[in-house]
Design brief:
The complex is a heterodimer of chains A (589) and B (179).
Chain A (H helix, E strand, L loop, with lengths): L9 H4 L1 H32 L8 H36 L6 H23 L24 H31 L7 H32 L8 H12 L1 H16 L1 H4 L7 H14 L16 H13 L1 H21 L17 H24 L12 H30 L6 H27 L23 H31 L28 H26 L12 H25 L1
Chain B lengths: L4 H27 L28 E3 L4 E9 L2 E3 L6 E4 L2 E9 L4 E5 L5 E4 L5 E7 L3 E6 L12 E7 L1 H18 L1
Parallel strand pairs in B: 2-5, 4-10
Antiparallel strand pairs in B: 1-2, 2-3, 5-8, 6-7, 6-9, 9-10
The chains are: A mainly alpha (589), B alpha+beta (179).
Chain lengths: 589, 179
C-alpha cells in the first residue's frame, strides 16, 4: 500500500479478488472482440453487402457469435461483477482464493473446448464441428466436446455461486441480526434463480446430448431436449440482465450524483425475478406442436407478470437518477436531465442502455403475446428485439460499467473518457440503425438465422421504406457496432497498461434514500423464496414434460432404444408425478 | 414497508397494463378464436415416415365441400410438397395443415401471413388456414436446419376452384394409375 488513501481502493484491499475479477473480465472481453467480429461478418453477409465466407460457413460464424457473446462474454462479466460486489458489500475477501481460481479455471476450460469445437467447423477435414447455434436443438448434432465444454462451463458457474454463498455464510456468523447487504442480496437471489434454471440444461446435456453425441444412445426426443433447453433458455435472459440491474440500482444513481431511491423495492424486484424467471420458458415454444394450449397460456400469464419487476425498475432507476440530477442543481419537470453528467461514459452508456431497454421491453411484449407472436416468430424481429435487450441493455451497461469498474481492479485511471463517450454513443446509434431495421424486416417476414434471406419464389414486401433500405441500415448499424467494440477494447487495454494511481476512480457508493430497515425481514428469507420458486417450476413444467415424454416417443424419441425396464421405471415416475399433481390440483381447485 | 406515493401509483398502473395485456390475448384466443399450435396434431414416428398413410405421400386431400387437409413433410432442405412442386390449394377454401419434420427441427412460414409453425420430428403441427383470392404465397424454413437452410423454400399457389378441380382429379387419376 503506497499511501493511506490507496488502502481504501478495491485492488489494494482485496488484491486476490481483484485478480479474479480481472481474469473474468479478460476472458469476457476477448470473447466480446471475437463475437463482435463474427457479428460484423454476419451483418455484411446476410444483407449481401460483402460475402467473404461461404454461406454454409455462415452458421459456424453464427454459432460462435451466439455462444461467445450470449454465454461467454455475459457470464464471465457477471462473474467478475458479482465477485467484486460480494467482496465489496460484505467487506471481506472470498473464503479461498484457490477455490475462486478453480471455478475460473473450469469455466475457462469449458469455454476453450466449446470454442474449439465451434471453430472446427471452418476446417472440414478435421471432422469436428458444432454448427448447432446457441440453442443446439437436437437432432442437429455437435461434436461431443462442444457439449462437454458447455457442461464444464455450467458446473463452473455453480462453483462460483458456491463461492459467494460461502462468503455470505462466513459473514453471517459475525452479523447475526443484520440485513443482507443489498449487492450480496442481488447476487444470491440471482444465483438461486440460476441453480433452479440450469438444472434443465444440465439434464439435457448430461443425460441426453453427451451420451447421444458419443453414440451411447441412438436418438433423443427432439421436443424434450428443446423444452429442457427453454426451461433454461429464458432464465438465462435474466442471468444476463441481473448484473446490469445490479449496476443500475447500486452504481448508476451514484454516477448521476445521487443515491438509490429505495432499497426494499430493489429487493422485491430481485425476488420477483427469482420466482418468475423459470416458469415462463414455454413462451419460446408458442409454435411448438406437442404442448397443449393451456400450458402455453400459463407461460404467457407468468411472462406478463414478469413485466412487473422491470416496470418497477424503470421507476426506481429513473427516480434515483432524477434525485442525482437535483442534487447537482437540476430543476424543472424535465430540465433536470440537462444537469446529469453526460460527459461521463459510464453514466451515459448506462443511461442509453436503460433507454433502449424500454424499447426492447415493448417489442418483447409482442413476442410474449401468445397469438400476435405468430406474425413474428423466428423472423428477424426476434434478433432485433434481443439486440436491444441483451445486446444493448446488458452489453452496453457492461461496457459502460467497465469504465468505472476496471480502474478499481487494475488501480489505473481510465485511458480516455472522450473515447469512452464516443464508444457508447456509437453503440447506441449503431443499434438504432440495426435494430429498427431488424424489427421492420421481421414484420415483412424475413427469417432470422439465415445466410441468404433472398429467395427464388417470392419477394418480401415492406409497408414503409424498402427492403434495400433495411439491408443498408443493418449493414451500417453492424459496422458501427463492431467499431464501437474496437474502441472499447482499445480503451480498456490502454487503461490496464497505464500507470497505477492512488485514486483511479471515485468508488464510494452512498447508502439508499430509503434503507432496508423499513422492509419486512421476510424479504431476506432466501430458503422460503427458493421453496416458492421450486413449487412454481414444478407446477409449470411437470405436466408438459410428462406429456412430451409419454406421447412423444419416450425419453429418447424414435423407437425405444432404452431397456424396457428402465423405460417402465421412467413411465412409473411420470405417471406418479402426474397423478400426484392431479390430486393436488383437485384439492386446490 | 414504506412505499412512496408515486411508487404506489406506478405499481397500480403497471398492474393495470399487465392485466390489460393478458385480457387482450385471452380475448384473441377465446373471443376472436385465434387457435394456437398445440398437441392436437398427435405424434408420428419419424423413422417410418415413408410408410405413413398420409405423410408417406404428402399433399392435399379433399375432406368436405370447401375443406381440405394438407400434409407437408419438411426435410433438409425441401418441403414436400412446396419445393419441387408448388403446394396447390383452391380459392375460398378452408385448409387444415399437418406439418412434420423427417430429420431435424424445421420451421414452416407462409411469408407475409401468420401461418407459422415449428416442424419437429415425431410431432405433427396442425393448424387451419382460410384461403380467399387466387394468387401465390412464398413459404420458407425459418428454423436453422443445417448448412443449406437458406435454400429451403417453396411456393403455395391458390387456384381458381374449377382450375383446381381439374388439377385435383388429374392427380387422383395419376395416383390410382400408379397403384
Amino acid at each position: 500500500m503506497a499511501t493511506a488513501s490507496g488502502g481504501s481502493e478495491f485492488v489494494d484491499k482485496f488484491p486476490d479478488e481483484a485478480a479474479i475479477v480481472k481474469a473474468s473480465f479478460l476472458i469476457a472481453f476477448v470473447s466480446l472482440g471475437i463475437g463482435a467480429f463474427f457479428g460484423l461478418i454476419q451483418a455484411l453477409h446476410r444483407t449481401n453487402v460483402l460475402r467473404v465466407i461461404d454461406s454454409a460457413d455462415y452458421y459456424t460464424v453464427l454459432t460462435g457469435h451466439g455462444v461467445l457473446l450470449a454465454i461467454v462474454f455475459t457470464i464471465f462479466f457477471l462473474c467478475g461483477v458479482f465477485h467484486w460486489a460480494v467482496a465489496r458489500s460484505l467487506d471481506r475477501p472470498a473464503e479461498s482464493a484457490l477455490f475462486s481460481w478453480a471455478w475460473v479455471g473450469l469455466m475457462t476450460t469449458g469455454t476453450v473446448l466449446a470454442t474449439v469445437a465451434i471453430l472446427g467447423g471452418f476446417v472440414p477435414n478435421l471432422g469436428m464441428s458444432a454448427d448447432v447455434l446457441f440453442t443446439f436443438y437436437a437432432p442437429l448434432q455437435a461434436h461431443p466436446i462442444f457439449y462437454i465444454g458447455l457442461a464444464m462451463f455450467i458446473v463452473g458457474t455453480w462453483l462460483a455461486g458456491a463461492d459467494w454463498f460461502l462468503s455470505y455464510r462466513a459473514w453471517r456468523k459475525n452479523h447475526e441480526d443484520e440485513r443482507i447487504p443489498l449487492q450480496t442480496f442481488m447476487v444470491l437471489t440471482t444465483m438461486i434463480m440460476w441453480y433452479v434454471s440450469t438444472l434443465g440444461v444440465a439434464v439435457s446435456v448430461v443425460f441426453f446430448l453427451i451420451p447421444w453425441s458419443l453414440g451411447l444412445i441412438e436418438s433423443v426426443n427432439p421436443l424434450l431436449t428443446r423444452t429442457l433447453f427453454w426451461y433454461f433458455g429464458h432464465p438465462i435472459v435474466y442471468f444476463w440482465l441481473m448484473p446490469a440491474y445490479l449496476l443500475w440500482y447500486t452504481v448508476l444513481p451514484k454516477l448521476a450524483g445521487g443515491r438509490l431511491f429505495s432499497d426494499p423495492l430493489a429487493r422485491v424486484v430481485f425476488l420477483l425475478f427469482l420466482l418468475l424467471s423459470t416458469p415462463v420458458g414455454i413462451h419460446h415454444q408458442y409454435l411448438d406442436p406437442g404442448i397443449a394450449e393451456g400450458f402455453k397460456f400459463i407461460a404467457m400469464t407468468n411472462t406478463m407478470f414478469l413485466l412487473l419487476p422491470s416496470l418497477l425498475t424503470a421507476f426506481t432507476v429513473v427516480a434515483s437518477v432524477e434525485h442525482g440530477a437535483r442534487q447537482r442543481g437540476g430543476e424543472g419537470y424535465l430540465r433536470w436531465l440537462g444537469a446529469l453528467p453526460w460527459r461521463d461514459p459510464a453514466f451515459t452508456g448506462m443511461a442509453l442502455a436503460g433507454a433502449m431497454f424500454a424499447a426492447g421491453g415493448f417489442s418483447g411484449m409482442i413476442n410474449a403475446g401468445m397469438n400476435i407472436n405468430y406474425l413474428i416468430h423466428n423472423t428477424l424481429w426476434v434478433p432485433g428485439h434481443f439486440h436491444l435487450t441483451v445486446g444493448t441493455a446488458v452489453a452496453l451497461t457492461m461496457m459502460a460499467g467497465s469504465y468505472w469498474l476496471v480502474p478499481q481492479v487494475t488501480g489505473t485511471k481510465l485511458y480516455s473518457r472522450p473515447i469512452g463517450l464516443l464508444q457508447v454513443i456509437m453503440w447506441f446509434v449503431g443499434m438504432v440503425f440495426m435494430s429498427n431495421a431488424m424489427h421492420r424486416a421481421g414484420l415483412a417476414g424475413i427469417p432470422r438465422r439465415t445466410a441468404e434471406p433472398q429467395y427464388q419464389n417470392f419477394e418480401f414486401l415492406t409497408p414503409i421504406g424498402s427492403i434495400f433500405e433495411l439491408r443498408v441500415q443493418i449493414a451500417l448499424g453492424g459496422t458501427l457496432l463492431f467499431l464501437s467494440v474496437v474502441l472499447f477494447l482499445f480503451n480498456i487495454l490502454l487503461t490496464s497498461l497505464g500507470e497505477e494511481s492512488d485514486r483511479p476512480v471515485d468508488s464510494y457508493l452512498p447508502e439508499p434514500l430509503s434503507g432496508p430497515e423499513g422492509s419486512p425481514r421476510v424479504l431476506d428469507n432466501l430458503a422460503m423464496w427458493t421453496g416458492i420458486a421450486a413449487v412454481l417450476v414444478v407446477l409449470a413444467y411437470t405436466l408438459p414434460l410428462a406429456g412430451i415424454i409419454q406421447n412423444g416417443g419416450g425419453l429418447f424419441g424414435g423407437g425405444l432404444p432404452v431397456p424396457a425396464t428402465v423405460s417402465a421405471g421412467f413411465d412409473l415416475v411420470a405417471t406418479t408425478v402426474t397423478s400426484a399433481f392431479n390430486t393436488l390440483w383437485g384439492v386446490v381447485a | 414497508m414504506e412505499i412512496h406515493a408515486y411508487e404506489k401509483l406506478w405499481l397500480a398502473l403497471a398492474l393495470v397494463l399487465i392485466v390489460g395485456f393478458i385480457g387482450t390475448i385471452t380475448y384473441g384466443a377465446a373471443g376472436a378464436g385465434i387457435e394456437m399450435i398445440d398437441d392436437e396434431g398427435g405424434t408420428v414416428d419419424p423413422a417410418t415416415l415413408d410408410q405413413h398413410p398420409k405423410f408417406g405421400d404428402p399433399g392435399i386431400e379433399r375432406t368436405g365441400e370447401n375443406s381440405y387437409d394438407v400434409y407437408v413433410v419438411a426435410r433438409q432442405f425441401v418441403f414436400e410438397p412446396g419445393t419441387t412442386q408448388p403446394l396447390r390449394v383452391p380459392a375460398d377454401s378452408t385448409v387444415t395443415f399437418h406439418v412434420t419434420a423427417a430429420d431435424v427441427i424445421h420451421g414452416f412460414e407462409v411469408v407475409g401471413t401468420n401461418a407459422n409453425t415449428m416442424a419437429i420430428p415425431g410431432q405433427v403441427s396442425e393448424f387451419t388456414v382460410q384461403f380467399e383470392e387466387p394468387g401465390e404465397y412464398g413459404m420458407l424454413c425459418n428454423e436453422y436446419c443445417g448448412s443449406g437452410h437458406h435454400v429451403m423454400e417453396g411456393k403455395i399457389v391458390v387456384m381458381e376452384q374449377d382450375e383446381f378441380d381439374s388439377w385435383y382429379e388429374q392427380q387422383q387419376a395419376d395416383g390410382e394409375a400408379e397403384n
